[in-house]
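ok trying again, last paste got cut off:
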Amino acid sequence: MSAWLVDNMIWASAMMLLVLAIRRPAAYLFGAGPAYALWIIPLFRLVMPPLPAIGAELPALLPAPSLILALEGTAAPLPPDGGPGQWVPLLLAIWAGGAAVFLVWQWRAYRDFLTRLSLSSRSLGGHRGLPLIESEAVEGPVALGLLDRRIVVPADFGSRYSAEEQRLALDHETIHHRRGDIWCNLAALAVLALNWFNPVAWLAFRAFRADQELACDAAVAAAASIEARHDYACALIKSASRHGMIAACPLNHADQLKRRLKMMKDHNKSRLRLFGGAATVAVLAAASATLGSPGLAHPHPEGEGERRSERIIIMNHKAEGGEHRAHGDRTHSMRIRRGADGELAAPDCDGGQATNVEDGSGNERTRIVLCSRGDATPAERAERLQRARDRLAGDTELSAESRARITSSLDREIARLRGR
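nice, full thing came through this time. structure:
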């Protein structure tokens, strides 16, 4: 699960960088709406589940040799190696704690905003089926509420804005509600919480909010005359507000004012531009779904050979009424029966090459089996056994006698593989 999340977060960050790079050219070519829709791609890449493997017969690209140790018998599993893996729980705890702190901060900020709003709110009726509220807590019109949807305007809204400016400003906020932009903001905050440590995500969040406002401006401009666009531009200037991160849709941030006014002047809507924008978003979303997907298998370049792996099974056999039982580690268990000649049957290596080392006699014996697949050389197999031997030598769960017996048997097999 953690590997899937890390992989998706890395690729989602790559998609954020891509959208940051192409959002302005896309807005110029296709319009503000399709440019805003590009932000679906990082979200889609972040939550996308692993795709099913394409062809089980295709090995992974340039796989590293893997060593799987399966301890079976009365001994406990091998202690984990030291190294980077030991920091994973700590890093996960820091990441989860940071995400929780961020979400709590956002929740408290939003709750404080609602408290300030309630202290000075007054109903003004409605606009296009949405309740209209006046409050001193806002500097410009705001679309507010996920379920209890409403529009909040500043206390001087009636005196500072002309009648046409009021209508256009309220239409802007109505469009936010109809398109579900407040829900989109909530999703964006959740993505930012997961990426609180990532500067790319912070840049992407601000760009996402700016593109959201531009797309809403474009929707207003599409239905407005030249004169009405002038009135709407005046409303934008009067509504310039400080940047905030509340889960609402303020009409205008001052730092984006120049770009929004230019878009109002140059806006041109056509079906061809919309179709081109939709096609671009679809192609990029499909590409992001396949790039780096852990479920996709890739063919080897010619001559690379098949995937190589080793599995070492160490079995402590004790007689139990004619049977020998080998208890597995955390993942599986197996039962070993005597063959017709009374010998212990070797575990199945699934078609791979088996190297057997056996120590002890009578009803208590230890068998070490190295299952090798691929074209590993004797020297490479000896190296794998040496690593297993070094780990076993430090296993305090094994008795000193068992440890000495097993390591001695492994030493003999390592020497044989190395031709000593």
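cool. The chain has a mean pLDDT of 76. The chain is about 50% helix and 15% strand.
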